[in-house]
Automatic annotation (TrEMBL), chain A:
Domain of life assignment: Eukaryota
Pfam family, one: SOR_SNZ
Assigned protein family: Belongs to the PdxS/SNZ family.
Enzyme class of the recorded protein, top EC level: lyase
Annotated protein name in UniProt: pyridoxal 5'-phosphate synthase (glutamine hydrolyzing)
Residues given in the record as D-ribose 5-phosphate binding sites: 48, 177, 238, 259-260
Binding site for D-glyceraldehyde 3-phosphate: 189
GO biological process: amino acid metabolic process; pyridoxal phosphate biosynthetic process; pyridoxine biosynthetic process
GO terms assigned for molecular function: pyridoxal 5'-phosphate synthase (glutamine hydrolysing) activity
Record-annotated PdxS/SNZ N-terminal domain positions: 31-236
E.C. number(s) listed in UniProt: 4.3.3.6
Entry-linked HAMAP family: PdxS
Automatic annotation (TrEMBL), chain B:
Coiled coil: none
Cited InterPro entries: Class_I_gatase-like (IPR029062), PdxT/SNO (IPR002161), PdxT/SNO_CS (IPR021196)
Top-level taxonomy: Eukaryota, Fungi, Fungi incertae sedis, Mucoromycota, Glomeromycotina
GO molecular function: glutaminase activity; lyase activity
Name recorded for this polypeptide: glutaminase
Length: 318, 239
């Protein structure tokens, strides 16, 4: 199944030699339909919200989608315990409150949570390291679902493994709930660096590089040719300011997820709006300066080196 | 009458506030009659282009970002004068009226005398691909256009004889009838429910560029002045 991978149309410049024809007639849940929603979300901000009221604030600020969850990562960190999929009732309330797409998280490997989210008609599923993993070896076989999935990655190998399992969209993991951008930058730079290396390799070298990255060869080859991940790639985990968001956009991601950064700050509505503007105008420092003015208190933030190894969410996922 | 040379090439802008605008840009790169392609984020950029594409994305987001970026009024003015094509979210923004909008309503640029139903087919699970016969674009039903419908809007009402139907759905999709209109043209405006930019078929992009060139030529010749109705205002029919 994974060999059937096709790059989302026009994600990169068209090559004339490669024009696959769509032959479906009124078919739902094709890979194009899944990656198509991810392409529509590009250059947008997806915001974590825990209730209908926050979802409305996000929508009014210009969020391209909302992520419905019971506790934002900062609170998951603080309160501890097992973190699971949200109550379907709460997800439904959020869906009813907004018209933009609604995403929700499932635990890594927990395909029944994913079946539940598919049954209630969510728009996108995040198989997320922010929740407590349900399987320490296997991720969900995402080809089996009609709903598109987004997954996190720290490096190219991890990203391509998730895509081969059927992910229609990726995001760099960062370190959720810290308000610290350092890990998101590390992961984005790692992926960029590995793609650049792959792009300069001969086919022979790519075979060996695929082994090193533990990535499927055909996806690595496609990535090397495109010079980017072969699906839409957002940034996540640690975005707290408009400058953080613009930084990730300039590093080459297609959009950003903001988790705790908005609703753990002093003035969520204003900060949310400012981050949206910063993503659109990411290469215009004057506008970023303007929107960064007077945003009130940012979330407090955690220095990564003060966290124990077992407190790092990015390490979850295999 | 002055002899006006038909422009060989035009510059096309793609509204680059949110959504799949790079996909449109990549598509336009395959069309020789496009001299330059500009991602548009400012009023100044808007002034430098001959025609505009409003891409798919979230229509609420695009409207809010346009407003917060201070180009909403410029866009409104642009779409009343110059060739513009809206895909999916872009079609919603070009409509004079929309259903199923967010609480408190949604701002629309307007220009097309149509009413659209947002998210006609439901949530993402109901998104689909379908082959469409578009008589002005596809030469025969055997050579259909691959249409990608993502949380797509459809046209529920057409409020003017000036609006020309380009395509209907063609087959029933759940409760949505086969006769539902999914692509229209009115004067210099074009709108599609689906996403040609998410396919490898550039026929509608070529059609839009030709359409824009024709409009520019007819405008220069002074033969035909196309005025558009703005919301509830009544304007005279063009002569």
């Amino acid at each position: 199944m994974s060999e059937n991978f096709t790059v989302p149309a026009n994600l990169t410049r068209i090559e004339n030699d490669k024009i696959p024809k769509v032959s479906h007639n009124g078919v739902i849940a094709t890979f194009s339909v899944k990656t198509g929603l991810a392409q529509n979300l590009k250059n947008g901000v997806i915001m974590d919200v825990i209730n209908a009221e926050q979802a409305r604030i996000a929508e009014e600020a210009g969020a391209a989608a909302v992520m419905a969850l019971e506790r934002v990562p900062a609170d998951i960190r603080k309160e501890g315990g097992v973190s699971r999929m949200s109550d379907p009732k709460m997800i439904r309330e959020i869906r009813e409150a907004v018209t933009i797409p609604v995403m929700a998280k499932v635990r890594i490997g927990h395909f029944v949570e994913a079946q539940i989210l598919e049954a209630i008609g969510i728009d996108f599923i995040d198989e997320s390291e922010v929740l407590t993993p349900a399987d320490e070896q296997n991720h969900i076989n995402k080809h089996n679902f009609k709903i598109p999935f987004v997954c996190g990655a720290k490096n190219l190998g991890e990203a391509l493994r998730r895509i081969s399992e059927g992910a229609a969209m990726m995001r760099t993991k960062g370190e959720a709930g810290t308000g610290n951008i350092v890990e998101a930058v590390r992961h984005m730079r790692t992926i960029n660096n590995e793609i650049r290396r792959a792009s300069a390799m001969s086919e022979e070298e790519l075979f060996s590089y695929a082994k090193e990255l533990q990535a499927p060869y055909h996806l690595l080859k496609e990535t090397a040719k495109l010079k980017r991940l072969p699906v839409v790639n957002f940034s996540a985990g640690g975005v707290a300011t408009p400058a953080d968001a613009a930084l990730m956009m300039q590093l080459g991601c297609d959009g950003v997820f903001v988790g705790s950064g908005i609703f753990k700050s002093g003035d969520p509505a204003k900060r949310a709006k400012a981050i949206v503007q910063a993503v659109t105008h990411y290469d215009d420092p004057k506008i970023i300066a303007e929107v960064s003015e007077d945003l009130g208190e940012a979330m407090v933030g955690i220095n990564i080196d003060t966290l124990q190894d077992n407190q790092l969410m990015a390490k979850r996922g295999w | 009458m002055n002899f006006i040379e038909r422009p060989k090439q035009i510059s096309v802008g793609v509204l680059a506030l949110q959504g799949a605008f790079q996909e449109h840009i990549h598509m336009l790169q395959s069309i020789p009659k496009v001299s330059s392609i500009l991602p548009v984020r400012t009023a100044e950029q808007l002034r430098s282009i001959d025609a505009l594409i409003i891409p798919g994305g979230e229509s609420t987001t695009i409207a809010l970002v346009a407003e917060h970026s201070g180009i909403w009024e410029n866009l409104k003015e642009f779409v009343r004068q110059k060739p513009t094509w809206g895909t999916c979210a872009g079609m919603i923004l070009l409509a004079n009226e929309a259903n199923n909008t967010k609480k408190g309503g949604q701002k629309l640029l307007g220009g097309l005398d149509i009413k659209v139903n947002r998210n006609q087919f439901g949530s993402q699970i109901d998104s689909f691909e379908s082959l469409l016969h578009i008589p002005q674009i596809t030469s025969s039903p055997e050579d259909p256009f691959p249409a990608v419908f993502i949380r797509a809007p459809t046209i529920s009402t057409i409020n003017s004889l000036e609006v020309e139907i380009l395509a209907k759905l063609g087959h029933n999709v759940d409760e949505t009838d086969a006769s539902t209109v999914v692509a229209v043209k009115q004067g210099h405006l074009l709108a599609t429910s689906f996403h040609p930019e998410l396919t490898n078929d550039n026929r509608i992009h070529k059609y839009f560029v030709e359409h824009a060139i024709n409009y520019i030529v007819s405008g220069q010749n002074g033969k035909k002045e196309i005025s558009l109705k703005d919301g509830n205002q009544n304007t005279q029919k063009p002569t």
